[in-house]
Each structure stands twice: as C-alpha cells, then as structure tokens.
Design goal:
- With 86 residues, this protein is α+β, with helices and mostly antiparallel strands.
- It has one domain.
- It has 2 helices and 5 strands.
- The chain has a 5-stranded antiparallel β-sheet with strand order 1-2-3-4-5.
- The two termini are 15 Å apart.
Length: 86
Amino acid sequence: MPTILQMLGWRLFFYANEGCEPMHVHARKGEMECKFWLLPDEYEIRPAFVRGLGPRDLREIRKLIFDHFDYIAERWQTFQQERENG
C-alpha cells in the first residue's frame, strides 16, 4: 500500500491487491477515509466511498486530489506498470 502523497494530514495511497479496478486513489486522515475514482478523460473525480468526512473535510480532500490530479494519475500508471512487470 504505497503512500503517494502526504499533505494537510491526509495520506493518499493505492492498494496493491485491488485487481483490475479503474484508476482511483484512497485517502485517510485520522478516522476519516475515502476513495475517489479518477477520470482522466474528463479531468474529473467521483467518490467511490466516503466514511467519516464532514462537508469541510470533503471539500479539502477533493481540492487536494484536483490540485495533484496529474501527479496522482502518473503515479497510478507507474504503480500499475511495476505490478505487471513484477
């Protein structure tokens, strides 16, 4: 479960055992956790699940993901290539 970014108390990461799911990122801060699908063709994100986040926290993590969208997408591609090549 590599951490790809830590900022504002959030840890953004990928899980290595999620099979063939579309591009996404997990985020955790304290007891709060969420997962967002990344849609590069639309430059959009959509929540897959959100646990324990209030409206302010949700705005904060959405902004963090959008501000680092290209970086997260690049890291996803690299992570998947490394998994495939073993």
